[in-house]
């Protein structure tokens, strides 16, 4: 078995993780090396998100083992300009790789040039977004913009041959102390969720990026983020779905500043929703909420019933989703109306809840005016 401390790890053909993992650490950067081989024995070597000087000795050692020397780097791609992504590019270009080029978006370039990189080294990826770029070796790379994930000009990089998508901070996360190996599983969710809620500005940006990923042809088989662990196989779809459902950043602004009174009011709304749901779900209504790992930090249950302890609006939306999604429209709408009506009655921010109509889902701008209109 490979040792993360000393070995590069091949995550796909000619695609290597060349990072550093300190024992007991929980937050790591992931640099990757992609080697495009030519028939004549030559190659084009592309470093993706090479990181900062703190990891560079390790990157250098692992690259040397693969391509002889980091000096044989022909190009560096960076997702955005953060120091953990590419602050080493300045010294790398100045000292080791005087011919190498830097591939990034123009928005990223405007800032990354402050790492002391000459403009002659820069290749803008923006013109290649639609059709991809053809490398001198004949291979293709496709820049895939992921605006506001988390930088406005963030761009992912897709390698359609290996079906590896380098996603930058998107799908990155903290790693559990006792995690072993390079591949993500269920245990990565807590750290990924926390990282996205800290660094991503809005769920709309996550959903935009996930939609762009779903349009890729062929679909990616591996997501290679700049933090956390590599997502592969069945976990790709699993984490695409989970990330696109996650409220982050401004989605949580109102909820973060909720007073005790507001949380008490959310508790009351949720109890009314559970009460209505019991009519058709019986006692399984509560079980559905207790069993949901994402609701666990928001709700407490005791003999008097449920209590909302944080993120009230989001917790109510999530609960309504869990209680109604599989139900026929008439039943689902009764519960959804109850949630919308109870929240407005208690002067809470309106939850985003879709009402099903004649087999179609209609988005209700859930304010009282709209509510009365539909009632
Ligand atoms: Fe970043
Ligand atoms: Fe990062």
Q: What can you see in these coordinates?
A:
The protein is α+β, with helices and mostly antiparallel strands and 375 residues long. The protein has 2 domains: 9-251, Metallo-beta-lactamase, Chain A; 258-374, no CATH class. It has 13 helices and 17 strands. It has helices at 53-67, 83-86, 89-96, 106-112, 189-199, 203-214, 234-244, 253-256, 260-281, 284-290, 312-324, 329-345, 368-374, and strands at 9-12, 15-17, 32-37, 43-48, 75-77, 101-104, 122-124, 133-134, 140-145, 155-159, 164-168, 222-225, 231-232, 299-302, 305-308, 353-357, 360-364. A 7-stranded mixed β-sheet has the order 1-2-3-4-5-6-7. It has a 6-stranded mixed β-sheet with strand order 8-9-10-11-12-13, with helices on one face. A two-stranded antiparallel ribbon has the order 14-15. α6 runs antiparallel to α7. The protein starts with 8 loop residues before the first strand and ends with a helix. 41% of the residues are buried. Mean pLDDT is 92; it is low at 358-375. The site of one fe (ii) ion has 5 residues, from loops.
Please mark out the parts with pLDDT under 50 across 5 or more consecutive residues, or reply none. 358-375
Q: Spell out which ligands are present.
A: fe (ii) ion
Oligomer: single chain
Tally of distinct domains: 2
And the CATH topology of the largest domain? Metallo-beta-lactamase, Chain A
The coarse overall form would be elongated
Rg from alpha-carbon coordinates: 24 Å
Helix and strand sequence: EEEEHEHHEHEEEEEHHEEHHHHEEHHEEH
**CATH fourth-tier homologous superfamily of the largest domain:** Ribonuclease Z/Hydroxyacylglutathione hydrolase-like
Structural class, by secondary structure, is alpha+beta
How much of the polypeptide forms β-strand, as a percent range?
Answer: 15-25%
Biggest sheet descriptor: 7 strands, mixed
CATH class of the largest domain: Alpha Beta
